[in-house]
Amino acid sequence: MPETLTPTRGSFAAWLEACGRQVEPALERACRSTSLALGPAKLRQAVSHALLSGGKRVRPALALLACEAHGGAAELALPGAVACEMVHAYSLVHDDLPCMDDDVLRRGLPTVHVAFGEATAVLAGDALLGLAFEVLAAQPDAATARDQAGLLAAAAGPAGMVGGQQLDLEAEGRALDVAGVAAIHAAKTAALLAVSLQLGARAAGADPAAWTAYAGAVGRLFQATDDLLDATRTTAELGKTAGKDAAHGKATLVSALGLEAAGRAAQDLGREARAALEDLPIERHRGLLADLPDYLLNRCR
Ligand code: GRG
Question: Which CATH class is domain 12-298?
Fold first, then answer.
């Protein structure tokens, strides 16, 4: 059995930190070893700004965790981990554009369109999406690459993240009920978080479908806590503009339920995730996966 990245400590925060030591160099390597290295200098800089300027790296950490949970070596999951983070970085660049959420601050730094101009920001997002699939395609095992590419494309596309963003835009200024908000969360945010776990499972040769319930609940919990953070934290704490959801009339868990009930709904999602964990056919890391909902419920950025 391969050595684990960390012992099976129950703290997801410690896991995230340990993963960073593998993920950050892998992201840097991907910038050097893909066709990005052949692109124009300004585009390379904009992509690097989007991809290498911090971030919690939750999606890569989930990919590595699911792979190890099935007994696979963490590095087997690195291509999927890098691909998910590239899609995530692209979504943030496009989400921050003036035609979308129009934000100037991300991870405590100017957003890509502020630093490099709007047109280059659009192209940097486009480049990151292509690079994600380039990274998957470069894997030696063709069946893994094909399966992971299909899963990631579905999660990122019209029935997943991009479709969720469309629903999110259409919901601005409208009073959605909690089911409407949950549908947006499932597509806009949960799909990519869930597929991060699923790509990790596939890297270990396991069936990604087994993760559907746990991963979906964790993904929706992630956006639920994002809604709560936006309503309760400061811009300095978040490294991105706080209070934007209310200012833009966004349909969120907080707008649908109020702050207290939104907190309770988030707790319910945590319970849903822990219940789904019981059914996962994994060999290890149950403690870390059980701690993940608590990490999300207690995070402050
Ligand atoms: C295709 C033009 C075009 C636009 C697409 C896909 C898209 C725009 C937006 C995706 C939706 C989106 C940005 C959802 C937000 C998800 C979310 C909670 C992001 C924050 O993730 P964290 O907290 O961020 O992991 P860090 O900075 O830590 O990586």
Answer: mainly alpha
